[in-house]
Amino acid sequence: MNKRSLSFEGIVEFVSVADAKGFSEAARRLNCSVSHVSRQVSRLEERLGTALFARSTRSVRLTESGQQYYLQCQELVSGLSQANEMVTGAQFDLQGTLRISMAGSFAEQFVAPALVEFAKLHPDLAVELDFSSRHVNFVEDGFDFAIRYGRLQDSGLVARKLANRNLMAVASPEYLLANGEPENPQALVKHSCLITNNDTWLFERNGKETPIKVSGRFRCNNANAMVEACKVGLGIGYMPKSSFLKAVEEGSLVPVLEPYWTKNITSWVVYQNRRFLPLKARLAIDHLLEHFKEWNE
Protein backbone atom coordinates (compact mmCIF):
# COMPACT_ATOMS: atom_id res chain seq x y z
CA MET A 1 0.00 0.00 0.00
CA ASN A 2 1.51 3.33 -1.03
CA LYS A 3 1.90 6.41 1.12
CA ARG A 4 -0.76 8.34 -0.80
CA SER A 5 -3.44 5.73 -0.06
CA LEU A 6 -2.71 6.04 3.67
CA SER A 7 -3.43 9.78 3.80
CA PHE A 8 -5.85 10.85 6.56
CA GLU A 9 -6.44 14.23 4.95
CA GLY A 10 -10.15 15.01 4.66
CA ILE A 11 -11.39 12.08 6.73
CA VAL A 12 -12.29 14.16 9.80
CA GLU A 13 -14.17 16.63 7.59
CA PHE A 14 -15.93 13.77 5.76
CA VAL A 15 -17.12 12.17 9.01
CA SER A 16 -18.26 15.55 10.33
CA VAL A 17 -20.34 16.26 7.22
CA ALA A 18 -21.91 12.80 7.43
CA ASP A 19 -22.72 13.29 11.12
CA ALA A 20 -24.07 16.81 10.63
CA LYS A 21 -25.87 16.04 7.35
CA GLY A 22 -24.48 19.19 5.82
CA PHE A 23 -21.33 21.17 5.14
CA SER A 24 -22.37 24.30 7.03
CA GLU A 25 -23.16 22.48 10.25
CA ALA A 26 -19.98 20.41 9.94
CA ALA A 27 -17.94 23.62 9.55
CA ARG A 28 -19.62 25.06 12.65
CA ARG A 29 -18.79 21.97 14.69
CA LEU A 30 -15.19 21.97 13.44
CA ASN A 31 -14.85 25.73 13.91
CA CYS A 32 -13.64 26.32 10.36
CA SER A 33 -14.98 27.67 7.06
CA VAL A 34 -17.45 25.86 4.84
CA SER A 35 -15.06 26.23 1.91
CA HIS A 36 -12.32 24.42 3.87
CA VAL A 37 -14.63 21.48 4.65
CA SER A 38 -15.87 21.29 1.06
CA ARG A 39 -12.32 21.44 -0.32
CA GLN A 40 -11.06 18.68 1.98
CA VAL A 41 -13.98 16.38 1.16
CA SER A 42 -13.56 16.99 -2.59
CA ARG A 43 -9.87 16.14 -2.38
CA LEU A 44 -10.69 12.96 -0.47
CA GLU A 45 -13.19 11.96 -3.17
CA GLU A 46 -10.59 12.62 -5.85
CA ARG A 47 -8.05 10.40 -4.09
CA LEU A 48 -10.58 7.62 -3.66
CA GLY A 49 -11.94 7.98 -7.19
CA THR A 50 -15.57 7.90 -6.05
CA ALA A 51 -18.31 10.26 -4.86
CA LEU A 52 -18.96 9.99 -1.13
CA PHE A 53 -21.90 12.41 -1.07
CA ALA A 54 -24.84 13.04 -3.37
CA ARG A 55 -25.25 16.81 -3.25
CA SER A 56 -28.25 18.96 -4.16
CA THR A 57 -29.19 22.56 -3.43
CA ARG A 58 -31.24 21.41 -0.43
CA SER A 59 -29.57 18.32 0.96
CA VAL A 60 -26.44 16.25 1.31
CA ARG A 61 -26.62 12.48 1.66
CA LEU A 62 -24.13 9.65 1.61
CA THR A 63 -23.80 7.57 -1.51
CA GLU A 64 -23.67 3.79 -1.19
CA SER A 65 -19.87 3.95 -1.28
CA GLY A 66 -19.93 6.87 1.13
CA GLN A 67 -22.06 4.94 3.64
CA GLN A 68 -19.66 2.00 3.63
CA TYR A 69 -16.67 4.31 3.95
CA TYR A 70 -18.34 6.27 6.75
CA LEU A 71 -18.93 3.18 8.89
CA GLN A 72 -15.21 2.44 8.83
CA CYS A 73 -14.00 6.04 9.16
CA GLN A 74 -16.32 6.86 12.07
CA GLU A 75 -14.58 4.30 14.26
CA LEU A 76 -11.21 5.43 12.95
CA VAL A 77 -11.84 9.08 13.89
CA SER A 78 -13.27 8.12 17.28
CA GLY A 79 -10.29 5.90 18.00
CA LEU A 80 -7.81 8.57 16.92
CA SER A 81 -9.58 11.15 19.10
CA GLN A 82 -9.50 8.82 22.09
CA ALA A 83 -5.79 8.09 21.53
CA ASN A 84 -5.02 11.82 21.36
CA GLU A 85 -6.96 12.44 24.55
CA MET A 86 -5.09 9.71 26.40
CA VAL A 87 -1.69 11.02 25.33
CA THR A 88 -2.32 14.74 25.82
CA GLY A 89 -4.43 14.50 28.97
CA ALA A 90 -7.22 16.41 27.24
CA GLN A 91 -9.85 14.81 29.42
CA PHE A 92 -9.91 18.01 31.47
CA ASP A 93 -10.36 20.26 28.45
CA LEU A 94 -13.35 18.82 26.61
CA GLN A 95 -14.33 20.51 23.37
CA GLY A 96 -16.81 20.01 20.56
CA THR A 97 -20.52 19.33 20.96
CA LEU A 98 -22.21 16.76 23.19
CA ARG A 99 -25.72 15.85 21.95
CA ILE A 100 -28.17 13.99 24.19
CA SER A 101 -31.74 12.81 23.56
CA MET A 102 -34.16 12.52 26.47
CA ALA A 103 -37.82 12.86 27.37
CA GLY A 104 -40.15 13.03 30.35
CA SER A 105 -40.38 14.86 33.65
CA PHE A 106 -37.55 12.83 35.23
CA ALA A 107 -35.22 14.00 32.48
CA GLU A 108 -36.45 17.58 32.79
CA GLN A 109 -36.36 17.79 36.59
CA PHE A 110 -33.34 15.66 37.45
CA VAL A 111 -31.17 14.64 34.47
CA ALA A 112 -31.01 18.06 32.79
CA PRO A 113 -29.77 19.85 35.96
CA ALA A 114 -27.05 17.20 36.36
CA LEU A 115 -25.94 17.85 32.78
CA VAL A 116 -25.96 21.59 33.45
CA GLU A 117 -23.47 20.87 36.24
CA PHE A 118 -21.35 18.87 33.78
CA ALA A 119 -21.42 21.71 31.24
CA LYS A 120 -20.28 24.15 33.92
CA LEU A 121 -17.27 21.92 34.64
CA HIS A 122 -16.22 22.02 30.96
CA PRO A 123 -16.58 25.59 29.63
CA ASP A 124 -15.22 24.73 26.15
CA LEU A 125 -17.81 22.00 25.59
CA ALA A 126 -21.14 22.74 23.89
CA VAL A 127 -24.06 20.70 25.26
CA GLU A 128 -27.28 20.17 23.29
CA LEU A 129 -30.30 18.52 24.96
CA ASP A 130 -33.10 17.33 22.68
CA PHE A 131 -36.37 16.59 24.50
CA SER A 132 -38.21 14.03 22.39
CA SER A 133 -39.73 10.62 23.09
CA ARG A 134 -38.87 9.29 19.63
CA HIS A 135 -36.27 6.55 19.38
CA VAL A 136 -33.28 8.18 17.76
CA ASN A 137 -30.77 6.75 15.31
CA PHE A 138 -27.46 7.56 16.98
CA VAL A 139 -25.49 7.58 13.73
CA GLU A 140 -27.96 9.41 11.49
CA ASP A 141 -29.21 11.87 14.13
CA GLY A 142 -25.79 12.57 15.61
CA PHE A 143 -26.57 11.84 19.27
CA ASP A 144 -23.87 10.72 21.70
CA PHE A 145 -26.33 9.01 24.05
CA ALA A 146 -29.94 9.04 25.19
CA ILE A 147 -31.90 8.75 28.42
CA ARG A 148 -34.66 6.15 28.17
CA TYR A 149 -37.19 4.68 30.59
CA GLY A 150 -38.63 1.20 31.00
CA ARG A 151 -37.98 -1.96 29.06
CA LEU A 152 -35.64 -1.51 26.13
CA GLN A 153 -36.37 -3.05 22.75
CA ASP A 154 -33.15 -2.43 20.79
CA SER A 155 -30.60 -5.07 21.82
CA GLY A 156 -28.00 -3.41 19.59
CA LEU A 157 -27.54 -0.61 22.10
CA VAL A 158 -25.44 -0.48 25.24
CA ALA A 159 -27.63 0.26 28.29
CA ARG A 160 -26.40 1.34 31.70
CA LYS A 161 -28.75 1.66 34.65
CA LEU A 162 -29.23 5.24 35.80
CA ALA A 163 -31.97 4.95 38.43
CA ASN A 164 -34.76 2.64 39.57
CA ARG A 165 -38.17 4.27 39.67
CA ASN A 166 -41.62 3.34 40.96
CA LEU A 167 -44.98 3.92 39.29
CA MET A 168 -47.93 5.59 41.00
CA ALA A 169 -51.63 5.70 40.11
CA VAL A 170 -53.56 8.85 41.07
CA ALA A 171 -56.81 10.72 40.54
CA SER A 172 -58.32 13.97 41.77
CA PRO A 173 -60.66 13.95 44.77
CA GLU A 174 -63.41 15.31 42.48
CA TYR A 175 -63.00 12.44 40.01
CA LEU A 176 -63.10 9.83 42.77
CA LEU A 177 -66.17 11.45 44.35
CA ALA A 178 -68.01 11.28 41.04
CA ASN A 179 -66.78 7.88 39.82
CA GLY A 180 -65.66 5.94 42.88
CA GLU A 181 -62.23 4.49 43.63
CA PRO A 182 -61.12 1.35 41.74
CA GLU A 183 -60.54 -1.57 44.09
CA ASN A 184 -58.18 -3.46 41.79
CA PRO A 185 -56.52 -2.96 38.38
CA GLN A 186 -59.27 -4.89 36.58
CA ALA A 187 -61.75 -2.20 37.66
CA LEU A 188 -59.93 0.34 35.48
CA VAL A 189 -61.86 -0.86 32.43
CA LYS A 190 -64.84 1.05 33.84
CA HIS A 191 -62.84 4.25 34.39
CA SER A 192 -61.49 7.04 32.23
CA CYS A 193 -57.73 6.61 32.12
CA LEU A 194 -55.20 9.19 31.00
CA ILE A 195 -52.86 7.58 28.47
CA THR A 196 -49.23 8.52 27.88
CA ASN A 197 -47.27 6.37 25.40
CA ASN A 198 -48.91 3.07 26.23
CA ASP A 199 -52.54 2.05 26.76
CA THR A 200 -51.56 -1.22 28.47
CA TRP A 201 -50.72 -0.55 32.11
CA LEU A 202 -48.63 -3.05 34.04
CA PHE A 203 -49.39 -3.71 37.70
CA GLU A 204 -47.88 -6.27 40.06
CA ARG A 205 -48.62 -7.93 43.38
CA ASN A 206 -46.77 -10.71 45.18
CA GLY A 207 -44.36 -10.97 42.26
CA LYS A 208 -47.14 -11.47 39.69
CA GLU A 209 -47.53 -9.02 36.83
CA THR A 210 -50.98 -7.97 35.62
CA PRO A 211 -51.28 -6.08 32.31
CA ILE A 212 -54.49 -4.06 31.94
CA LYS A 213 -55.72 -2.53 28.68
CA VAL A 214 -57.12 0.91 29.51
CA SER A 215 -58.97 3.61 27.60
CA GLY A 216 -59.89 7.23 28.06
CA ARG A 217 -60.54 10.48 26.24
CA PHE A 218 -57.21 12.17 26.99
CA ARG A 219 -53.86 11.07 25.59
CA CYS A 220 -50.60 12.99 25.97
CA ASN A 221 -46.86 12.18 26.02
CA ASN A 222 -45.97 15.13 28.27
CA ALA A 223 -45.86 14.39 32.00
CA ASN A 224 -46.64 17.95 33.14
CA ALA A 225 -49.74 18.13 30.94
CA MET A 226 -50.82 14.73 32.24
CA VAL A 227 -50.56 15.91 35.85
CA GLU A 228 -52.77 18.91 35.04
CA ALA A 229 -55.32 16.64 33.34
CA CYS A 230 -55.43 14.51 36.47
CA LYS A 231 -55.85 17.54 38.72
CA VAL A 232 -58.89 18.85 36.81
CA GLY A 233 -60.59 15.45 37.01
CA LEU A 234 -60.25 14.04 33.50
CA GLY A 235 -59.39 10.60 34.82
CA ILE A 236 -56.85 8.31 36.47
CA GLY A 237 -53.16 8.67 35.67
CA TYR A 238 -50.37 6.11 36.04
CA MET A 239 -46.80 7.37 35.73
CA PRO A 240 -43.51 7.42 37.64
CA LYS A 241 -43.99 8.54 41.24
CA SER A 242 -41.78 11.62 40.89
CA SER A 243 -44.23 13.11 38.38
CA PHE A 244 -47.07 13.15 40.92
CA LEU A 245 -45.36 13.74 44.28
CA LYS A 246 -45.86 17.52 44.45
CA ALA A 247 -49.55 17.33 43.55
CA VAL A 248 -50.10 14.50 46.05
CA GLU A 249 -48.37 16.50 48.80
CA GLU A 250 -50.59 19.49 47.98
CA GLY A 251 -53.71 17.31 48.14
CA SER A 252 -54.83 18.00 44.57
CA LEU A 253 -54.26 14.33 43.68
CA VAL A 254 -54.96 11.17 45.65
CA PRO A 255 -53.06 7.85 45.28
CA VAL A 256 -55.14 4.83 44.21
CA LEU A 257 -54.39 1.12 43.74
CA GLU A 258 -51.22 1.45 45.83
CA PRO A 259 -50.78 -2.30 46.59
CA TYR A 260 -50.54 -2.94 42.83
CA TRP A 261 -48.03 -0.30 41.74
CA THR A 262 -45.11 -1.55 39.68
CA LYS A 263 -41.74 -0.94 41.30
CA ASN A 264 -38.16 -0.69 40.07
CA ILE A 265 -38.75 0.34 36.48
CA THR A 266 -35.35 1.49 35.27
CA SER A 267 -34.21 4.71 33.64
CA TRP A 268 -31.24 4.00 31.37
CA VAL A 269 -28.37 5.71 29.66
CA VAL A 270 -28.24 4.13 26.20
CA TYR A 271 -25.73 4.58 23.41
CA GLN A 272 -24.54 2.93 20.24
CA ASN A 273 -22.58 -0.27 20.65
CA ARG A 274 -19.27 0.97 19.31
CA ARG A 275 -15.65 0.25 20.10
CA PHE A 276 -14.73 3.87 20.80
CA LEU A 277 -17.10 6.11 22.73
CA PRO A 278 -15.98 9.77 22.58
CA LEU A 279 -14.40 10.96 25.81
CA LYS A 280 -16.95 13.78 26.19
CA ALA A 281 -19.73 11.15 26.19
CA ARG A 282 -17.89 8.76 28.51
CA LEU A 283 -17.24 11.49 31.07
CA ALA A 284 -20.81 12.81 30.85
CA ILE A 285 -22.19 9.30 31.40
CA ASP A 286 -19.83 8.74 34.34
CA HIS A 287 -20.99 12.09 35.78
CA LEU A 288 -24.64 11.01 35.56
CA LEU A 289 -24.01 7.58 37.06
CA GLU A 290 -22.18 9.14 39.99
CA HIS A 291 -24.89 11.79 40.42
CA PHE A 292 -27.70 9.20 40.59
CA LYS A 293 -25.95 6.38 42.47
CA GLU A 294 -27.82 7.15 45.72
CA TRP A 295 -31.01 8.43 44.06
CA ASN A 296 -34.38 7.30 45.38
CA GLU A 297 -37.80 7.91 43.79
From TrEMBL:
It comes from the Bacteria. The keyword Calcium does not apply. GO terms for molecular function: DNA-binding transcription factor activity; sequence-specific DNA binding. Pfam families: HTH_1, LysR_substrate. Keywords: DNA-binding, Transcription, Transcription regulation. Residues 14-63 form the HTH lysR-type domain. GO terms for biological process: DNA-templated transcription. Belongs to the LysR transcriptional regulatory family. This is HTH-type transcriptional regulator DmlR. It comes from Grimontia celer. The gene is dmlR_8.
